[in-house]
Write a structure and sequence with these properties.
The structure is a single chain. The protein is mainly beta. It has a single domain, classed as Jelly Rolls. Helix content is 10%, strand content 41%. The protein has 1 helix and 15 strands, in the order αβββββββββββββββ. β7 and β8 form a beta hairpin.
């Protein structure tokens, strides 16, 4: 009888641990959502970390959820609002046409980071995607939507109004600020859980 109680307790602890480490998709786009903008510059969405998280996957919006028609790239940055020159690239994942990533049932495609990234409370960050254009359009709340954010129960805070970069500078961090809301674009996303 005592052994059964111990086993039951272990199962409860395992269930609690998996609930705490449940994966959350930061920027949720419903499956089948069409893109509406052929902008070819980088698109970024800012967030602040309120409690330590681990980012396990990066993702990109798939216009119409029909497979990519152009190669895309997702990048995660640690941003510095006071001095954008101090912004640090933390991870990059390519989504070429012959290796488009995994469809998890929403309007994005995902790839697992080779090394998960821990972001400590207080980190300011930006999720960026690039490669969109006339063949694979991004979403913009000015002409499409809605899509949603998930803060993981208060782990992160979505801030700002989106940011975009110069199409002629595809490798440069996007510094031009847009008018909002904080999930302005269907473009880049990430999967994370509490640390």
């Amino acid at each position: 009888m005592k052994r059964l109680k111990v086993v039951a307790l272990l199962l409860v602890f395992a269930a609690m641990a998996s609930a705490v480490l449940a994966d959350t998709i930061a920027y949720n786009v419903p499956a089948g959502t069409p893109g509406c903008q052929a902008f070819t510059g980088l698109l970024g969405l800012d967030f602040n970390v309120l409690s330590d998280i681990v980012v396990t996957q990066l993702g990109v919006f798939d216009d119409n959820t029909d497979g990519l028609q152009a190669p895309l790239q997702a990048r995660l940055y640690q941003r510095d609002d006071a001095n954008p020159c101090n912004t640090k690239l933390l991870a990059t994942i390519d989504f070429p046409l012959d290796d488009q990533g995994t469809d998890m049932g929403d309007g994005n495609l995902y790839k697992v980071l080779p090394n998960p990234i821990t972001l400590a409370a207080g980190t300011t960050a930006c999720m960026v995607a690039s490669g969109y254009g006339p063949l694979e359009m991004n979403g913009n709340t000015g002409c499409a939507g809605p899509w949603y954010t998930d803060d993981g129960g208060g782990l992160i805070n979505f801030v700002g109004g989106g940011r975009f970069g110069d199409p002629a500078q595809p490798q440069q961090y996007p510094t031009s600020k847009d008018g909002g809301p904080p999930n302005r674009y269907a473009a880049g996303t990430f999967v994370y859980h509490a640390r």
